[in-house]
Amino acid sequence: MLFPPIQERRQVELEIQPDPFPTATVPPPTEIVWRSLDPSIKPRPYLERTPIPEPRPDPNKPRRQGHPRAPQHCTVGYGYYPDSHQRVPTLRLRGRWLEQLGFTIGSKLNIRLCDGELVVSVAPTD
């Protein structure tokens, strides 16, 4: 039997205790104030203060699209061909900037050599 008969059930009183970690009801400060526990110590005067930025008027509105920033320099690494212990040069590029430039996951690439430079472009779709 999973449960005792109703007559045998005991009533338990629950005591509700206050939340040990109450949530804040006061909004956060809009300006930083330095306070000292020792009143004889005066806070240092700040000549320049960085103002706290105003909150965005509509937080649901998407932010302005950033511009893609490709790395300026990269290091040639190495990898191995299958069943070979000989190292071969390897380039690995990754980042959202590739997607912003049209290099989406699964897209085919054209790679050519032009005046000592590698030119990588997205191949046209068939």
Describe this structure in words.
The protein is mainly β. It has one helix and four strands, in the order ββαββ. The protein has one helix spanning 96-100; strands spanning 77-80, 87-90, 109-114, 117-122. A hairpin with a 6-residue loop joins β1 and β2.
Poorly predicted ranges: none
Secondary-structure class: mainly beta
CATH topology of the domain at 87-126: Pemi-like Protein 1, Chain: D
Q: How many strand segments?
A: 4
Termini separation (Å)?
69 Å
Contiguous helical run count: 1
Strand content: 15-25%
- Nearest-integer average pLDDT: 77
Given this structure, which CATH class of the domain at 87-126 is correct?
Mainly Beta
- Looking across the biggest beta sheet, what order are the strands in? 1-2
CATH architecture of the domain at 87-126: Ribbon
**Shape type:** elongated
| Largest β-sheet summary | 2 strands, antiparallel
Helix share of residues? under 10%
Encode the helix/strand succession as letters: EEHEE
